[in-house]
């Protein structure tokens, strides 16, 4: 029977010890590959759902406005830091 991982064909009973359980598990390479690529269709399904649900429009990258209002947000989120000692002066100069 396929559901029992061919236990009868291998001469094993239904009660397997932990040592023999590896016979019924999916090979590691196949499992890793499956888990690695399962996120791709999930992303596209979620993306298409969001586009249809919210009815958002496609915007060309050349026409996208990403700078308006940025200065006000930057001033609020990233206040101007004044260095207090030589190490901080060097660090702010470096970064």
Any overview of this molecule?
By secondary structure, this protein is mostly helical. It has one domain. It has helices at about 30-35, 40-55, 70-75, 85-95. It is flat and about 60 Å long. The chain starts with about 25 loop residues before the first helix and ends with a helix.
How many helices in DSSP terms?
Answer: 4
Mean pLDDT reading: 78
Distance between the termini: 64 Å
In angstroms, what is the radius of gyration?
A: 29 Å
Order of helices and strands: HHHH
The percentage helix is 40-55%
Taking pLDDT < 50 over at least 5 consecutive residues as the criterion, the unreliable ranges are none
Backbone structural class: mainly alpha
Number of strands: 0
Main sheet? none
């Amino acid at each position: 029977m396929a559901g029992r991982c061919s236990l009868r064909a291998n001469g094993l009973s239904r009660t397997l010890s932990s040592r023999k359980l590896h016979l019924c598990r999916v090979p590691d390479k196949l499992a890793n590959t499956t888990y690695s690529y399962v996120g791709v269709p999930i992303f596209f399904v979620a993306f298409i759902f969001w586009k249809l649900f919210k009815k958002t429009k496609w915007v060309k990258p050349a026409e996208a406005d990403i700078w308006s209002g940025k200065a006000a947000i930057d001033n609020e989120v990233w206040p101007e830091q004044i260095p207090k000692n030589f190490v901080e002066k060097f660090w702010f100069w470096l970064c």
